[in-house]
Amino acid sequence: MSVVYAKGFSTAGVRGGISSVEGKKDVAVVVNNGPIFVAAGVFTTNRFAAAPVKYSRQIIADGGARAMVINSGGANACTGVAGFEQVKATAQFAGEKLGIQPDKILVASTGLIGELLPLDAVFAGVESAAKQLNNDEVSGKNAAEAIMTTDTKPKMVTLNVPSGYRVGGMVKGSGMIAPQLATMISVITTDAVVDQETAQEALQKATAKSFDCIDVDGCMSTNDTVVLLASGASGVEARKDEFEELIAKACSQLARQIIGDGEGSSHDIRIKVSGAQSYEGALACARAVASSNLLKCAIYGNDPNWGRVVSSLGTVPESVAQFDPDNVVVDINGVRVCEGGKPGQSRSLVSMTEREVFIDINLCTDSHEEAVVWTDDLTLDYVHINADYES
Amino acid sequence: MSVVYAKGFSTAGVRGGISSVEGKKDVAVVVNNGPIFVAAGVFTTNRFAAAPVKYSRQIIADGGARAMVINSGGANACTGVAGFEQVKATAQFAGEKLGIQPDKILVASTGLIGELLPLDAVFAGVESAAKQLNNDEVSGKNAAEAIMTTDTKPKMVTLNVPSGYRVGGMVKGSGMIAPQLATMISVITTDAVVDQETAQEALQKATAKSFDCIDVDGCMSTNDTVVLLASGASGVEARKDEFEELIAKACSQLARQIIGDGEGSSHDIRIKVSGAQSYEGALACARAVASSNLLKCAIYGNDPNWGRVVSSLGTVPESVAQFDPDNVVVDINGVRVCEGGKPGQSRSLVSMTEREVFIDINLCTDSHEEAVVWTDDLTLDYVHINADYES
Fold first, then answer.
1. pLDDT at site B117
2. Which residue, among A53, A78, A319, A339, would best test binding to B if mutated, counting the most B CBs under 10 Å from its CB?
3. Is B263 annotated as a binding residue?
4. SS3 of B321-380
5. Which end of chain A is more exposed for a tag (fewer CB within 10 A), N or C?
6. Which chain B residues touch A112 with a CB distance below 8 Å?
7. CATH architecture of the domain formed by B2-260
8. ipTM of the complex
9. Any idea which architecture A268-388 has in CATH?
């Protein structure tokens, strides 16, 4: 159901002809039918932010959005003034077809950087989508498929609470995924009655511990966009804490699906750092381990190589995370392979047959802060995919 | 000739039986025969620094060294007190065999992290090397081969100046190579007459712009060690500036050889960032680009994907490198593929047939600081090598 699980939304995912892949759907439209039109957003911090990111950031800042147009097959990034004009033209065209003011339409793009979009194909997609808008399961899935690039499957979430409102969502993302940013493109919808401030705050808190804590390949995108749209169609006013929890859950589930479909990956790796003096320190340690190509290759080779865990941990400055290397404990899939910075139980005891790999690092300081980062292994297929992509 | 090109040194490289690879030489000994015994060193900043790093750092600080023992086949890192005892025992044993005080002997190790060394094999190697010490070409090459791990060829340098002294050297390193540290293991020798302060300063300046500016895979080692030994055997007192230049050249040539032999690499990539406000800013930009897995895969696929260049550049905070994304220019192998942050000439004009790839980024600020970082492409063989290494 993805974005139409929450009441008050309709969607469509169609082929406009932007993508060079035969038959690939490449345009999704999501419409908020109200009665309220709250929109929150979190965007990439990349300084080469794409034209649609700059545009949509401004729409959110100006307050409210009634629809969103998303295309795959081209990122419209590093395309200068001409690229920005394409975004405006897309919003203008969509506005006409949907009967909505153009300045209430968000735009997002994903695909190759540095090329203008084939605008005719974008328009064709928007026109066709506008005619097919629906709130059924197929439409929700079509939209989630239309935003995919190297993703191998659509990624969706549906959640509800006893108090009577719903949260739905979709995300695309497989490569160029790194933390300290929003993420790839995600649309989350709710029929709760919330104000913009509550929605924005809930979304920021949720992304900080979900999309910001996954890392496929250490590469930050120019197009990352997470949007939360609220229609108020349930008539239920959301309790702030419950709402934040629900949005956090939706973001976590979508982020987890990105890792599950990381480019070429054969293992999902959960890195948990505990016993730290601060959350920031624990997070810095987890990120350092998650970014190790050597570790990620070892995991691909089913080798629980804890030496590559601690050598990454050792790159984190003491000013960021205080700990004594001689106290550090590392468990891989429950086997204590490193104890007090030295070899512990034999690595041969670690089973690596499951897709999920759990690396638990205890810094053993006198505090108990912890952080979790998810990453993927680095495989032959990752290199294949990214050596061949648009070459 | 490597380390014995400079007068006053003898060396040997032999098999002690540490490495599991049949017939692989795994112990090198370098002896400074004087008349002076100056030693300078730069070591990894990794907090899990290996036992031999901690030990040798102290020997250098205490002043002077007359010999160095290096083994491949095991890093003796994360091995606790027992590992440190192995280093002391090795120095003690080598001292007896070489007739040198043990506290004048440096020790370095490279190989798998988290396992103690087979000390019998280390001793066997030291004993055999002590008997074969020589200053001929074969011995120099044997030593350079004995320190190799995943390296596919020995890496050596020989330099001289008209004023009459020489510099020789060797290095090993292929993976787990990342900047902001010393590097892998390198021994540079000179027969110039220099004091410890001059030697240390020359080495630090040289490593900052050579070993610190290469990055194979973003992974910092626990065992990086660069040592400069001076014998004074030429009788020539080195002029400070000339000496610094020579050491810088030796380090640059050795660093360049590491990139030329980066694990599984098919392209050596020079990233030059110019037009920056500061050297530090230029360096941060070059490092960001050099660490992009996506770019490195694209280069492997012979794709001059400048989108992946600028998206990496865009991750550098403005506080670190001020520049306007809309002014940035990118040339790949002499073709201006990005101009003013937008597409320039067609990527199809870029020839990618040569091993070397030159990525020139001009930030086009009103200043002209620049920095260079070398890296390798990310290939199927890199993943193969690191998925299989000791698994």
1. 96
2. A78
3. yes
4. CCCCHHHCEEEECCEEEEECCEECCCHHHCCCCCCEEEEEEECCCCCCEEEEEEEECCCH
5. C
6. 307
7. 4-Layer Sandwich (3.60)
8. 0.76
9. Roll (3.10)
